[in-house]
Amino acid sequence: MTGGPVVVGAAWVFGDDINTDVMAPGLYFKSSMAEMARHCLEAVNPEFASSVKPGDIVVAGRNFGIGSAREQAAMAFQYLGVGAILAQSFGRIFYRNSINFGIPTLVFNEVESIEAGDSLMVDAASGAVTNRTRGVEGQAAPLSGHLLTLVRAGGLMPYLHGRLAAGE
Length: 168
What we know:
Blueprint lengths: L5 E8 L6 H4 L9 H5 L10 H4 L5 E4 L11 H9 L3 E4 L4 H9 L4 E3 L11 E5 L4 E4 L4 E4 L5 H9 L2 H10 L3
Parallel strand pairs: 1-2, 2-3, 3-4
Antiparallel strand pairs: 1-5, 5-6, 6-7
Helix pairs in contact: 4-5, 6-7
């Protein structure tokens, strides 16, 4: 796998139709991002926020990130250090928010081949997904050039700051 970013981490597996409301519960909107992130996905998996490790990979079915257009959902994943998100399909605004926060977010149709805790390696440039636990290779849709540039920069704001600093 080449071209980066390459992410290696444990899989956290979720089903279909995971809504942004459970990623960033509205009850915590007036709280700090640290507090909101502590409640990320608790309605679906109460262990997620307290147990996810930097670099771990979220794997989901269809419509991951549907619902309201709250950027705090992607921010919570960034705060928790999620290394990548793989899903069969995404809510469009969530997808772009995740990229804007520097999280490699790839469409991957073979999510059924991954079980919770599997060690994965994901290459956002090539779309290669390796399940190191099972010795299985898969192919996600790689990020396009511009989106890959944003992810490599750490997200939209770091990208823009870099361009401004370079006088562009």
